[in-house]
Specification:
This protein is an alpha+beta fold. Helix content is 23%, strand content 16%. It is built from eight helices and 14 strands.
Length: 313
């Protein structure tokens, strides 16, 4: 896998939290999940995350996934459905909260192969934040978002709440025709997340969809001359605009922003597949190119990356 370059310092130890609510408590008195509503820690600060060792547990998995799917003794309650030919698998009848280590290894491999894995009808959201955090830590070091809202007492839980009483989110929507946008989570970090876990607590009957697009497919669709051009090129991913916008809007920045140069074409350490690694949210320029060259190539890659037949659930 290609190396990534950035400047880092040792992360500090958080002290006591000072919290600001991002919701109206009276509006959620009947909610089963009010304890997960967004708050902003306004005291704890961190240095940029230092480099750390990581081994994808998918490397330890049995490729046939006999523990996860049990082909020799199938459970009639478990159904596995491919949502599209290249991205997305839906699983019903299997509880994340009950997976053993071998099953977690195979789940990591499945995520690497399929990009998105959807588990329906889970008790996971009811096992409590301590066990949820332990589950996440089983797949690697947890990330703390530098500016985002979080769950009380759990900085690692990045909260996404779009209710009308979240005035900050409402403020953002008021100045835009649409807030729909694609990004790769915190790609400006030296080591961006290997896996993102999205847990739905309360959702409307319609709307609020989340879409994914396969960057493996995006890369495969490029012509051979363009693939050859991209090999060895790196792009700058920046967290500075995100931090600047947060400060402008009066939000707390708990970790100063960083810029990182990543390869435009990444190689997955488990599958060996090549994938595009640029996104409109954080990728700003291609290193070593003239501005006009960089802008033109990124415009092409952004278009290709969002035109892969993505699915939403």
């Amino acid at each position: 896998m290609a190396q990534t370059q950035t400047e880092t310092q040792q992360e500090s130890t958080p002290t006591k939290l000072t919290l600001t609510q991002a919701f109206d408590a009276d509006a959620h008195k009947e909610s089963r999940y009010a304890s997960y509503l967004p708050v902003y820690d306004t005291l704890t600060t961190f240095q940029p995350t230092p480099p750390f060792s990581f081994r994808d547990r998918g490397l330890s998995a049995n490729p046939s996934k006999p523990n996860l799917f049990k082909p020799d003794d199938p459970d009639p309650e478990v159904t596995i459905t491919r949502l599209t030919p290249r991205i997305g698998t839906e699983i019903r009848g299997l509880q994340l909260s009950g997976l053993n280590d071998a099953q977690k290894d195979e789940l990591a491999l499945l995520v690497a192969e399929r990009g998105v894995v959807v588990f329906r009808d889970q008790d996971f959201k009811d096992i409590g934040p301590r066990r949820q955090k332990e589950f996440g830590e089983g797949f690697g070091r947890l990330h703390v978002h530098p500016v985002g809202a979080h769950v009380k007492d759990y900085l690692e839980f990045h909260n996404i709440y779009l209710g009308p009483d979240n005035l900050y989110r409402a403020q953002l929507r008021s100045s835009k025709l649409s807030t729909t946008g694609y990004h790769s989570d915190v790609s400006y970090e030296h080591q961006p997340p290997a896996i993102t876990m999205l847990t739905m607590l309360e959702v409307p009957l319609t709307g609020g969809d989340t879409g994914w697009a396969s960057q493996v497919v995006a890369y495969e669709r490029l012509s051979e001359p363009i693939k050859k051009l991209l090999e060895g090129l790196r792009a700058e991913h920046s967290g500075f605009p995100q931090a600047d916008n947060a400060r402008r809007d009066g939000r707390f920045v708990r970790r100063e922003p960083v810029k990182t140069d990543h390869p435009i074409v990444r190689v997955h350490p488990v599958t060996g597949q090549k994938a595009l690694f640029v996104n409109p949210g954080f990728t700003k320029k291609i290193i070593g190119l003239k501005d006009e060259e960089s802008d033109a190539i990124l415009k092409l890659l952004f278009k290709v990356s969002l035109s892969t037949g993505d699915e939403k659930w």
